[in-house]
């Protein structure tokens, strides 16, 4: 399971979170700040809750819920009772946010490659901006009169009254470590012989400049070597696996993939900004994860699978 979005309740007594078990099983939960048994708040079958926003009163939560490419917004009461459906469209309503006073909420409506930022007041609903799809995120400014919009790798301030959009400039600088070039010897491991189909015991691997240079089927003489030596203690050594179809939608998936031997993934469809952000974060050492090769966004027509 992965933990998705996380938020404190306004009184600080609870932590709300999305417990993401699979593509078709992710629900809203909460747990008391002091610990204890977590409480599941949504129970849709073969459905997926993504984003949510807490209303100031503490009893209502706006939840994005859906399946595949479509999702609608619902208002649920954490104390029980039926959910109230707020949208019913062919689009996906996502990245829901609630104003500090609770009188407005906003969301991104995305459909057929186009995003609309929608603001809903007590008596009005209006689209305040339109742009190409790029996995946007929203949060209300404390003044309640504007939104901070994350669009790809850019930040904007958007006025809720008229949609006036102002870029928020910023500069981010990182230094990327060079690829490892140290030599290394791994001894006393089992290897699979892909040609003969046998297991080679007590094999040794010589790594130079970060690449496998030699494979020895007999114990390797390590006396006098000036490079690090790892004793495999008879374990089986495999090359990194490549997952040829993995949607890297959650940055928390990375350590689990590595733990299962997956060192490279091919992502056949995701928001390009997210995929590149994950790729860069892994290269920078901010996240642990495999090498990411992405095809970019999914391509489909109206009424298609996605």
What brief labels describe this structure?
306 residues; eight-stranded mixed β-sheet; Translation Initiation Factor IF3; mainly beta; 2 helices; hydrolase activity, acting on carbon-nitrogen (but not peptide) bonds
- CATH topology of the largest domain, by name, is Neuraminidase
> Residue-averaged pLDDT, rounded?
86
Q: Mind telling me the CATH superfamily name of the largest domain?
A: TolB, C-terminal domain
Number of strands: 23
Largest sheet: 8 strands, mixed
Radius of gyration, CA atoms, in whole angstroms: 25 Å
Distance between the termini: 23 Å
Q: Helices and strands, in N-to-C order?
A: EEEEEEEEEEEEEEEEEEEEEHEHE
**Beta content:** over 45%
Compute the number of structural domains.
3
What is the structural class? mainly beta
Explain what this protein looks like in three dimensions.
- It is a single chain.
- The chain has 306 residues and is mainly β.
- It folds into three domains: 2-167, Neuraminidase (6 Propeller), CATH 2.120.10; 171-239, Roll (Urease, subunit C, domain 1); 241-294, Amidohydrolase (Translation Initiation Factor IF3, 2-Layer Sandwich).
- 6% of the residues lie in helices and 46% in strands.
- It has two helices and 23 strands.
- It has helices spanning 254-259, 272-284, and strands spanning 2-8, 14-22, 25-32, 39-40, 47-54, 60-67, 70-77, 84-85, 92-98, 105-111, 114-120, 125-132, 137-140, 146-151, 154-159, 165-167, 184-192, 199-208, 211-216, 229-231, 241-243, 262-267, 291-294.
- Strands 1, 2, 3, 4, 5, 6, 7 and 8 form an eight-stranded mixed sheet that branches. The chain has a four-stranded antiparallel sheet with strand order 9-10-11-12, with no helix packed on it.
- β1 (2-8) and β2 (14-22) form a beta hairpin.
- The mean pLDDT is 86.
